[in-house]
Design goal:
Blueprint (H helix, E strand, L loop, with lengths): L13 E5 L2 E5 L10 E4 L7 H6 L4 E5 L4 H4 L2 H11 L3 E5 L8 H14 L3 E6 L1 H13 L8 H4 L11 E5 L12 E5 L4 E5 L8 E4 L9 H20 L7 H23 L4 H14 L13 H13 L3 H16 L5 H10 L9 H19 L16 H9 L13 H10 L2
Parallel strand pairs: 3-10, 4-5, 4-6, 6-7, 7-10
Antiparallel strand pairs: 1-2, 8-9
Helix pairs in contact: 4-5, 7-8, 7-9, 7-11, 8-9, 10-11, 10-14, 11-13, 12-13, 14-15
């Protein structure tokens, strides 16, 4: 069965009647996640046996070379040698992976008859590898045809990941995001079977992650919960809403610890597992909404190539401020009480404003991220175009509160 995590093509809710009363229901759902996870610092010894299940010809995909500095490259190569594998490499994957890099990887797969892809890195590397897995089965030579739905494929190459950054959840989910810098587009792609088959999650591989990337990754984890399922006016399952809050609280608790003590295993382990569970489908089954802040941030990354988590941090408080009203205030206040530990006796609107302030403090003071787009060298010259692209062909960005291009442009300007 094809995993269910895909673009929305059905109504976000279904109404029914009970004794003449119209009821807004959660959607029925099927939960499936095929990824097998090896978690912990002694699990790499199983890599060779997992690789051998898929074949002998491996394309290893990685980024700028940090895996060599921390010794992970040598460990992975030793395991591949045990598997008797012929190893080909694609290095230099960008923080916002380019479609041109995906095309290079797909060409290697076709030329060398690759059996299995091995992504060693963070979310960008894994996203790039997912797109390669699909593009390798495409008769054409440009993955952008698949991403823009000009062409489709029915299968993908198997994928194994070795995670080095807690952020995107790509190690246990079915999507990827690829950038086309020629057209200033950053788009999601949900291939025929993009879930990794196996993922190795060793928290020690994140000990060397910089404070900046640790902070940005932590924001990204929270953003997945915020955007997809937490801030909503639609029906959800309370059990899942409570678990969403626990994932958010985990990040709030352990991100500062990881910043203060990068080799704290407990902190890194909690962030790593929170990353995986923030976006592996479980938290938002029976419910799905458009990812408003992600859509806006993808435009920032597409035009300015900034770090995704940092862009999200700048957007979140302004977005919440912009959509704050009598209808949205209760759930924003609930976040402040249940996640940020604020006083629950405050009036709803006052409590909601305090929650937004607490989130700002966490992002910009506790995590130390710069708070404005102008701090990143961004001005307003592209805002109108970015806002139109964020809202798509329909001209509406659906979510917590529906936004028009004019709304999105105003939020961008609030971020300056």
């Amino acid at each position: 069965m094809k995993p269910k995590y895909q673009k929305i093509v059905v109504p976000l809710h279904r109404d029914s009647e009970y004794n003449g009363i119209k009821i807004r229901n959660m959607r029925d759902f099927v939960f499936e996640n095929k990824t097998k996870v090896y978690f912990g610092k002694e699990q790499m010894c199983h890599l060779h046996e997992e690789v051998a299940r898929f074949g002998k010809r491996v394309l290893m995909v990685y980024g700028g070379g940090s895996i060599k500095r921390i010794g992970l490259y040598d460990k992975v190569m030793a395991e591949l040698q045990k598997a008797g594998a012929s190893v080909f490499e694609l290095s230099g994957v960008e923080p916002n992976p380019r479609h041109t890099t995906v095309n290079k990887g797909a060409a290697i797969c076709k030329q060398e008859g690759i059996d299995v892809l091995l992504a060693v890195g963070g979310g960008s590397t894994i996203d790039c590898t997912k797109a390669i897995a699909a593009a390798a089965k495409y008769e054409g030579d440009d993955v952008w045809d698949l991403i823009t739905e000009k062409a489709v494929v029915s299968e993908s190459l198997p994928i194994i990941t070795v995670l080095t950054l807690s952020a995107t959840g790509s190690e246990m989910d079915g999507g990827c995001v690829i950038s086309n810098m020629e057209t200033n587009e950053k788009l999601g792609y949900f291939g025929p079977d993009n879930y990794p088959d196996v993922s190795f999650l060793d928290p020690t591989n994140t000990f060397s992650v910089s404070p900046y990337q640790t902070a940005c990754g932590s924001v990204d984890i929270m953003a997945h919960v915020f955007d997809v399922c937490y801030f909503t006016k639609r029906p959800t399952m309370d059990m899942l809403h409570r678990i969403q809050e626990e994932v958010l609280k985990t990040v709030v608790k352990y991100a500062p610890v990881a910043l203060a003590k990068p080799d704290d295993y407990e902190a890194r382990a909690n962030l790593m597992w929170a990353s995986s569970w923030a976006l592996n489908n479980f938290l938002f089954e029976g419910f799905f909404q458009a990812t408003v802040c992600h859509a806006m941030e993808h435009e920032l990354s597409a035009f300015y190539d900034i770090t995704h988590g940092h862009g999200l941090a700048i957007l979140h408080p302004r977005w919440l401020t912009y959509v704050l009203d009598e209808e949205t205030a209760p759930i924003i206040q609930r976040f402040g009480i249940n996640v940020m530990g604020l006083d629950g006796s405050l009036p709803v609107m006052e409590g909601a404003k305090a929650a937004i302030k607490a989130l700002e403090t966490f992002y910009f003071e506790t995590l130390g991220l710069k708070r404005r787009l102008s701090d990143l060298g961004i001005d307003d010259k592209n805002f109108a175009a970015m806002a139109r692209k964020a809202c798509g062909a329909e001209g509406i960005l659906h979510g917590f509160t529906d936004l028009t291009p004019a709304d999105v442009e105003k939020i961008f300007r609030m971020c300056l």
